Amino acid sequence: MRLRSLRRRLPSRVRMTTVFAAAVALTASLTSAVPSSAGTSAPAAERVAARSAERGGPGQPEAHDVVLAVHGGAGTALDPDHTSPAEERAYRAGLTDALRAGQRVLRRGGDSVAAVEAAVRVLEDNELFNAGKGAVFTADAGHELDASIMRGSDQAAGAVAGVRSVRNPVSAARLVMDRTRHVLLAGEGADDFAARAGLPTVTQDYYWTQRRWDQLMAAKEKERGARDGRGGDEGPRAKDAGAKGADSTKGTVGAVALDGRHHLAAATSTGGMTNKMPGRIGDSPLIGAGTYAKDGTVAASATGHGEVFIRGAATATIAHLMEYSRLGVAQAAHQVLIKQLPQLGGDGGVIALDGKGTFDAPHSSPGMLYGYLTRDGRIITKIFPSESPANE
Predict the structure, then answer these.
(1) What is the pTM assigned to this prediction?
(2) Which of 36, 52, 216, 270 is the S-S candidate for 137 at Cβ 3.0 to 4.6 Å?
(3) Per DSSP, what are the bridge partners of residue 6?
(4) Each residue of 284-296: b (16+ CB within 10 Å) or e?
């Protein structure tokens, strides 16, 4: 919080000058998103600086000619001082693998829906991210997963909520869109539908990871501290569990894509919030909150405080600002994520892509994990706050 407060007090001209000077001093290869082994021996601060790139100002797009983007959640992001070179490589590789999966679909002439499904499936299978295999625990030590997908050409959509035995919820969401007359299936009905459709199923222990278990224990210890009048003071276990990695309360994955026929699509998947009440559903499976796609406006996937994104109809509002107020994608996303949602009491981020390949990833949280693929095959990944500072 002190760092955020200090950054707010710095004049924007000073911040932009500093960032610009750093970007000019670096070679194009160092700002490349896909990490190489050459930088693994450098101190964390140097590794971050070597990959930092100049970011546009408020309401300015981050990139052009983007065909696919993914995110791995918003929150405190990764702390470079507590992230080993191996961990950095693993996170960047996870985002890159997802982008490569979607890229293969697009190169074969596949549509944007298939591309976002393929990208999100890779993230669901990676336990580093809070979706699928890496899903967090509910308060009763279970796992309940949500996902949604939307096609921009006709605004068809599908979603599942509270599933407990689907390996890849995003694929279940697509089946809801393609094979039923409904948009959202929940709980046991969604699990049964996915199984009957032939999707791989798993038992609850498939989702179990030590890291997520430690996060649950830390959350419960903090909860006990609050009840006992200790002000939620964190004990050793809580401090250890929270020392590394992104804030698990905002972990979500998502993808947006633009195919060769200029059609947009978006998908989002999550394990929810650590220690959430059983049955709690956030924004990820709700069309217009966590996911939205409409040709001519935007494909957007959100991550953050789900209740706030629901109340603010976050992704649909971005599309409506573009359609009715004629704002650009970056302006509309900035207006919603940075101006409106914080007033409702929550933060987070969004990846947003328009039909021309203009891309932005504004976030009010200290950091967000994301990456994107350009039309010429270039991949950029950003995992540290210095690579993608919070917008103001």
Answers:
(1) 0.82
(2) 216
(3) none
(4) bbbbbbbbbbbbe
pLDDT, one tens digit per residue, over 127-164 is 999 999 999 999 999 999 999 999 999 999 999 999 99
Burial string for 203-239 (b: 16+ CB within 10 Å, else e) reads eeeebebeebebbbbbbbbbeebeeeeeeeebeeebe
Catalytic residue IDs: 252
* Angle formed at CA 198 by CA 192 and CA 202, multiple of 5 degrees: 65
Phi-psi group of 245: left, alpha or beta (phi > 0 → left; psi -120 to 50 → alpha; rest → beta): left
List pLDDT tens digits, range 317-375: 999 999 999 999 999 999 999 999 999 998 999 999 999 999 999 999 988 999 999 99
Q: Residue 343: what are its φ and ψ, rounded to 5°? A: -70, -20
Residue 283 contacts residue 306 (beta carbons within 8 Å): yes
**What H or E segment, with its residue span, contains residue 68?**
strand 66-75
Nearest-10 Cα torsion for 213, 219, 223, 229 = 120
